[in-house]
């Protein structure tokens, strides 16, 4: 199986380094994880050439022709000089032959850690801990200097994969640019969540046993050919594709986190595949699951059994999202409850949000389904984000948006004054007005 595609057959990467760098930088800039002048990406190809973003060119407007190639002998090919940070890219590649791509940028949360001389503890979530690899901290040196290259390379030579640069930003490496981007995004996600969680209370971190439990979970389905897709299945595939992409662009999902499914009939459903970049999913990437069978040639999300248990217990549920939006996920990493009795929309859409103990969703007993009902369409998952259900794909996504907006408003309100929730009288009035009994 390919970790890059989530399919059993692994296609060759036929994208030119110029295009891969251009597209990845566009995504980083669009996600506001760097500035017009900040950050640089590189790829080392099989011939030893280093393809890198140029110096002094607008990161929000890069073209493929702007990308520079530095030959092993130092010869430069391109319209511009290479990034001023080229020395540390070269030093990392020399120190770590296994690294084939590097991402350096200045995402706000990780910069905050860098100026506090700290690195995020990725034990916040199992996926962040797994994706980010060993975390390091490189002492300050002047940007573009050989000293900075030496400082960073020494940290990478110790086996680190994600490195905070003191008073500067972050550098991550990977075996390809896709994996380096996923590592960078997951690292920033952990950093942002920690910033929010620290405003709520004491942050919980996962033990070795808890991390191992998450790593060992798997999904055992037999392969089958489902035949010709019905029009309703085709429509659900389109909807899932559109809303997963929207979720990524609104930062409700990230490329390595979250699963989204939709019921097709009594026991079959479509679900996101495992270990594929969520934003790049196409309609035919979603996996049809029917009982103990999954669509041939694809691997379903490792959360598929949890989705299946919820569908089995709750016939009214037509769509399910497991997601990690930063603000709601911050509540999952602390003992602070999320009270959605804040504004009418929050309560009408979400009712009372339950909290599930860590790992319930990994069990084979379907216990996660007990935390969902018609009266409780959403739940906080301890150190693992949130679970939201809906009567349609749109309804589930809408509730996810409301949940994250509510969580962000509550966190913001705590910095202003005491949070005032709606009294029982108001809740009773809402239940009557919107038939919530």
TrEMBL record:
Please name the PANTHER family in this protein's record: 3-OXO-TETRONATE 4-PHOSPHATE DECARBOXYLASE-RELATED (PTHR22789:SF0), FUCULOSE PHOSPHATE ALDOLASE (PTHR22789)
EC number(s) recorded for this UniProt protein: 4.1.2.17
| GO terms, biological process | pentose catabolic process
Iron-sulfur among keywords: no
List the GO molecular function terms: L-fuculose-phosphate aldolase activity; metal ion binding
Could you say which enzyme class this protein belongs to? lyase
Which Pfam families does the entry mention? Answer: Aldolase_II
Q: What organism, scientifically named, is this protein from?
A: Roseimaritima multifibrata
Per UniProt, the keywords (alphabetical) are: Lyase, Metal-binding
Name of this protein:
L-fuculose phosphate aldolase
- SUPFAM superfamilies the record matches: AraD/HMP-PK domain-like
All copies of the Class II aldolase/adducin N-terminal domain together span 19-195, 238-411
The record, for SMART domains, names: Aldolase_II
| InterPro entries membership | Aldolase_class_II_sugar_metab (IPR050197), Aldolase_II/adducin_N (IPR001303), Aldolase_II/adducin_N_sf (IPR036409)
> Domain of life of the organism in this record?
Bacteria
Q: Tell me the organism's taxonomic lineage.
A: Bacteria, Pseudomonadati, Planctomycetota, Planctomycetia, Pirellulales
């Amino acid at each position: 199986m390919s970790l890059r595609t989530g399919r059993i057959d692994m296609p060759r990467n036929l994208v030119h380094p110029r295009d891969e760098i251009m597209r990845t930088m566009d995504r980083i800039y669009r996600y506001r994880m760097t500035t017009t002048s900040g950050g640089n990406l590189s790829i080392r190809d099989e011939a030893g050439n280093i393809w890198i973003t140029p110096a002094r060119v607008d990161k929000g407007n890069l073209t493929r022709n702007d990308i520079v190639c530095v030959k092993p002998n130092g010869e430069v090919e391109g319209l511009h000089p290479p990034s001023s940070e080229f020395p540390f890219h070269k030093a990392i590649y020399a120190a770590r032959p296994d690294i084939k791509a590097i991402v350096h940028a200045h995402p706000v949360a990780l910069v905050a850690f860098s100026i506090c001389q700290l690195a995020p503890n990725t034990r916040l979530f199992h996926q962040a801990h797994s994706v980010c690899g060993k975390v390091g901290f490189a002492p300050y040196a002047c940007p573009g200097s050989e000293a900075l290259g030496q400082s960073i390379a020494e940290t990478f030579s110790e086996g680190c994969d994600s490195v905070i640069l003191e008073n500067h930003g972050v550098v991550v490496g990977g075996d390809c640019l896709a994996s380096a981007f996923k590592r960078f995004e997951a690292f920033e996600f952990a950093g942002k969540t920690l910033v929010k969680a620290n405003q709520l209370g004491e942050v919980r971190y996962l033990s070795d046993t808890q991390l191992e439990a998450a790593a060992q979970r798997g999904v055992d389905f037999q392969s089958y050919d489902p035949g010709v897709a019905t029009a309703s299945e085709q429509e659900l595939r389109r909807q899932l594709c559109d809303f997963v992409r929207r979720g990524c662009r609104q930062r409700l999902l990230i490329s390595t986190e979250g699963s989204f499914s939709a019921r097709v009939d009594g026991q079959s459903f479509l679900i996101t595949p495992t270990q594929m970049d969520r934003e790049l999913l196409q309609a035919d990437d979603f996996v049809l699951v029917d009982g103990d069978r999954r669509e041939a040639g694809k691997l379903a999300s490792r959360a598929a059994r949890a989705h299946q248990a919820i569908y089995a217990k709750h016939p009214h549920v037509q769509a399910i999202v497991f997601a990690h939006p930063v603000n709601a996920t911050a509540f999952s990493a602390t003992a602070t409850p999320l009270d959605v009795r804040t504004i009418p929309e929050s309560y009408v859409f979400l009712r009372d949000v339950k909290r599930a103990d860590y790992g319930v969703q990994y069990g084979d007993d379907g216990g996660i389904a007990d935390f969902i009902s018609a009266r409780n369409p959403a739940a906080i998952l301890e150190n693992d984000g949130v679970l939201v259900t809906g009567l349609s794909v749109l309804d589930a996504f809408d509730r996810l948006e409301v949940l994250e907006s509510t969580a962000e408003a509550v966190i913001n309100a705590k910095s202003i004054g005491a949070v005032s929730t709606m009294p029982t009288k108001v809740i009773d009035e809402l239940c009557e007005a919107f038939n919530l009994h």
